[in-house]
Amino acid sequence: xxxxxxxxxxxxxxxxxxxxxxLVGLLMQPIFMIVVFVYLFGGSGGDRAGAVxxxxxxxxxxxALITTIxxxxxxxxxxxxxxxxxxxxxxxxxxxxxxxxxxxxxxxxMVTIMMSLLIGYVVGFRIRTGPLEALAAVGLMVLFAFAxxxxxxxxxxxxxxxxxxxxMASAVLLPLTxxxxxxxxATGLPGWLVWWMNVNPVSHLASALxxxxxxxxxxxxxxxxxxWAAAIAAVFVPLALRAYARRVS
Length: 249
Prior knowledge:
Blueprint: H1 2-17, H2 20-41, H3 48-80, H4 83-88, H5 96-123, H6 131-158, H7 162-178, H8 191-199, H9 201-213, H10 219-248
Helix pairs in contact: 1-5, 2-3, 2-5, 3-5, 3-6, 3-7, 3-9, 5-6, 6-9, 6-10, 9-10
């Protein structure tokens, strides 16, 4: 099962070599986000250095969330193109194509994270903790994205088209991202919005990344993020596997 999933993950990554436009878009995504959120929004108060330190973990959070949308879109595309019909005739585990797709998208997420940190360093972001904390931050991002990818996979398997899947995923992720402390603190906002930000898993992920990369006591946010990841995976892994079995049966 593991070797089959890794093989199919590699199969999903090979087209990037023949599609330079897709690879360039993958690398340009963090540049665009940093320019928008740091220079256009964050720099309006005059403290650009502080804005970089606060907002780059938020950019990393959004990069991880956006990557998960691609999982469902790619699955919906593969099913529509008949790719999974061929997998069904092969002597492989039923869940291997699904796991391979998710692993491939996590590999592209790692590339985007490294690109984000590189551009962040150019614009002034500095990791002020140790290497272990920084690696823990990357691992936490990947783990949360892994859990959320199963939710995206479920949507990709139950919706009728790629467009529908993308619309549904965006409708869920936009309030999670912009209704969080990823880019702005929760001070001075209406009470109902502060409540939502405090329970929002994206807020906990962004705060955990700041604590692990910039410094501060954010152990509670790390545990909240791990709890949310476990809960999401517990719900959507079996749902995605069941939906996949129905689509390929």
